[in-house]
Amino acid sequence: MKSLAVKVFDSNNIEIYPDGDSRRLFLNFNKEKMVNASLLAFEFPEKNINDFIKDKQVIAFMERLGEETGRPVLVKEYWGFEYSIWMHRALAFKFAAWLTLDFELWLYDVAENMLLAETDYPDTEPSEEGNNNQIDD
Fold this sequence. Notes:
The protein is about 35% helix and about 25% strand.
């Protein structure tokens, strides 16, 4: 599986360079820990953020995420005629995966390694067999 180069400037600014792509994903967090999606997509001009947020699966994801968090998951911040789009962290990861396949594959690889590791997961209870863990929502 491909790897990522990660450059952490501080807890609010992180650059990710997917292997196989010279372009970066820039994670810029605000005080609510939402991600500036406009900056995230900056180096992917061929991808339009509006195409992403109009996708039926993305709309369903945003609705469910909003229900789970009780907070807005997508915010437009205006100043004059310009604006930035801010996304909840989970939506921003979905957006980044849409921007570059290498990042999406890396996310699945991380999740697979975590789930298949012999680990006690937080907020889980052993199954009746005692060998499997069930992850609660």
